[in-house]
Amino acid sequence: MEFFKKTLDPIIALAALAVLNIFMFLLMGAWTVGGGETMMTGLTAQAVLGDDLQRLPFWSVVFPPHADYWKIYISFGMLFGAFVGAVLSKEFYWRVPRHLSEWILITIGGLLMGFGIRLAYICNVSTFFGLMPEMNMGGYLAMSGIIAGAWVGSLIYKKILEG
Amino acid sequence: MLSPIVECVVAFIFGSVAGLLMQRSRFCNTAALRDAIMFKTYRNTKAMLVAMMILTVGFTGFMSLGAGNPLRFDVGLNTFAGLFLFGIGMVLAGACTVSTWVKTGEGNLGALWALIFTFVGMFLFSVLWSSSWWPPAPQSMTGQINAPALQLGFANAQTLQEKLGIPAIVFGLVQAALLFALYRGILKRERAQHVEHEKHQKEHKKTKAQPAQSAAATTETA
After folding, report:
1. B37 found inside a domain
2. Nearest Cβ partner of B106 from A80, A91, A123?
3. Does A157 touch chain B (CB under 8 A)?
4. How many domains does chain B have?
5. pLDDT at B39 over 60
6. In whole numbers, what is the pLDDT of chain A averaged over residues?
7. Distance separating alpha carbons of residues B70 and B7, to the nearest angstrom
């Protein structure tokens, strides 16, 4: 199939996704990532710590872990969809970062993303494809934050690349 | 209202289509911002703007009719600070939350690693929150300005519509027009880059051709 041979124009992909996202907005809520990940974190922590998790009120007040939280399944869906796409287009292969520096950057980056999402209560998807189109004041705050952050991140990245 | 199971199934289908489209188009939110800042290339930025235009008109249009489920929670300084940290993190990790899932699906173990540490970061925040109780939990949000907690309250196209009596779509069209102006600005910039690039290539060819000509001239005289 042609679809799995050529790279899709991202404008077409995102326009299609936007239309689907409008359906999501009408049914449940706009596309979001972060809430699902938090639930996964909570469920994992509950499995590991058991009742000890109750000592952290965050997991009873803000995010009581529930496996039937729909946002979790958006993320699993993305993993599944990308896997199917990669296999059918013969683009699936194991990729492993080679240098220690890459692993360190990824670790720091991951930590900052996780911490940042929870501090803000939203992530970049809800910023651009949820809050901004809803014209939520938080969308503008978040967008200025993420652009400033991406700029600082790029400066750090350039420094590391050059050094 | 849909039952939780139906919601999960719908979410999974939506996610699968999203993952497939992202994988086939190599779209990435991180690249949309990073490439525009670092390399002045806009392949992903343009796609992001197109989606935002469609969504703005779609969401505000339905909000004018009272339909849809907009996100409801107060925002404040934490919104800015959190996304600032997120912005640094996604450039360092080379992927945002969406692309970590998509890249993991392609077999990228670095992306899986980023995802694991996103979870760790979330857990660390939960520890911090449990001692500070800041920012306020969605359950205790009031929608009003709360200066001691650095909260600015809640406002979107719907609240504007309720307060001013002007349909949300009007604000949506203004925002879509601004996004379109930004999109056209990028197209203009790309054209200018293209012209510059062609000029460089021509000059490059000329400088390459000149020594060859002079070399030819010397052999002729000899």
Report:
1. no
2. A91
3. yes
4. 2
5. yes
6. 95
7. 16
Measure CB to CB from residue B89 to each of A32, A96, A109 and give the nearest one: A109
Residues B84 and B20 in one domain: yes
If asked whether residues B115 and B60 sit together in one domain, one would say no
Please give the pLDDT value at position B179.
98
Is B58's CB within 8 Å of A22's CB? yes
Q: Tell which of B153, B168, B200 closes a domain.
A: B153
Alpha carbon B96 to its chain centroid, in Å, reads: 9
From chain A, pick out residues whose CB is under 8 angstroms from the CB of B48: 14, 128
Which of the listed residues B131, B153, B175 is the one where a domain comes to its end? B153
Q: Residue B149 domain-assigned?
A: yes
B89 and B131 both lie in a single domain:
yes
Does B94 lie in the same domain as B17? yes
Residues 6..65 of B with a Cβ closer than 8 Å to A: which? 7-27, 29-30, 33-34, 37-38, 43-44, 46-48, 50-52, 54-56, 58-60, 62-63
In angstroms, the separation between the Cα of residue A153 and the nearest Cα of chain B is 4
Q: Are B11 and B63 found together in one domain?
A: no
Q: How confident is the model at residue A1 (pLDDT cuts 50, 70, 90)?
A: confident
